[in-house]
Structure formats: C-alpha cells, structure tokens
Amino acid sequence: MKNSKKPVSYAKQRPLVTVVVNNQEVMQYDRRKTPSTEQFAYIDSMDKQMDQGIEMSGVFHKKPDPIVKSQLVAQQLLIALAAKNYSLAAAMCTWLSERMPELVKVKATGTVESMQVDLMFARPT
C-alpha cells in the first residue's frame, strides 16, 4: 500500500477513530494530525511484514486482504492498551487511520484472552 493521503474534506467530516472496550471509550485518535515520516515508515514496514502472511484464530492467511490486516492491527491495539503501551497503541491507530480512512470505531467486548473485535466504518459523504 502506498502512502496515499485521504482528502482533507473527509478528514474534517470523520476526524476521529474511537476505541471502545466493553462499552467504555478508552481512546480517540485524531486523524487530522499528519503522521511523521518515521510513522509512515513504521506502518509501511508493518504492511511488508503482514504481506508475508498472517495467522489469526488458527488460520494462516498467505495473502491477507486489508480487512484481515485491520483485524490483526485492531487486536494488537487492544493488547497494547491492556499493557498500557500507549505509544504502540498510537502506532496501531495510525495504521488503522491511514489504511482504513472510512474507519470510525474499533469496538471490542470481552477480555484480552477472548475478545470480540468489530470494526465500524462510515460511508464517505
């Protein structure tokens, strides 16, 4: 995936990605803030690693599509939040925001060991 920028008008319409765990908002990521060159390099390296294959829920995805990648990144985001690793959580939010511009909410229920994660998208207006 390239470092494609989302249209400014869309960022103004849907500026936040909200993370909700067990019906409690735990984090908001403001996508109006432009990631640094280093942050773009980090999320590009994440893509390269995931392009080599991903194992999720006991299933190996040799060529993961963007939704599978997003689910993995969202799970890593929740693990980072549980560990209070806020810099890693912010990096996962950066990936989600940049790679999934229609994403508005990551909603999780359960415990870290058994978490149901839903990605909620808005339609561009």
Topology of helices and strands:
Layout: H1 8-13, E1 16-21, E2 24-30, H2 37-51, E3 54-56, E4 59-61, H3 66-82, H4 86-99, E5 103-110, E6 115-121
Parallel strand pairs: 1-5
Antiparallel strand pairs: 1-2, 3-4, 5-6
Observed structural traits:
disordered N terminus, 125 residues, two-stranded antiparallel sheet, 6 strands, alpha+beta, 4-stranded mixed beta sheet, 4 helices, globular
Alpha carbon gap, first and last residue: 24 Å
Which spans of ≥5 residues are poorly predicted at pLDDT below 50?
1-11
Give the helix proportion (percent range). Answer: 40-55%
**Whole-number total of structural domains:** 1
Give the biggest sheet.
4 strands, mixed
The Cα radius of gyration reads: 14 Å
What is the number of strand segments?
6
Shape: globular
Whole-number mean pLDDT: 87
Number of helices in the DSSP assignment: 4
Strand arrangement across the biggest beta sheet: 2-1-5-6
Coarse structural class: alpha+beta
Listing every helix as H and every strand as E from the N terminus to the C terminus, the arrangement reads HEEHEEHHEE
Approximate strand percentage: 25-35%
Could you explain how this protein is built, in words?
By secondary structure, the chain is of the alpha+beta class. The chain has one domain (8-53, 61-121). It is built from four helices and six strands; from the N terminus they run αββαββααββ. It has helices at 8-13, 37-51, 66-82, 86-99; strands at 16-21, 24-30, 54-56, 59-61, 103-110, 115-121. The strands form two sheets. Strands 2-1-5-6 form a four-stranded mixed β-sheet, with helices on one face. A hairpin with a 2-residue loop joins strand 3 and strand 4 (59-61). Helix 2 packs across helix 4 and helix 3 (66-82) runs antiparallel to helix 4 (86-99). Residues 1-11 have low confidence and may be disordered.
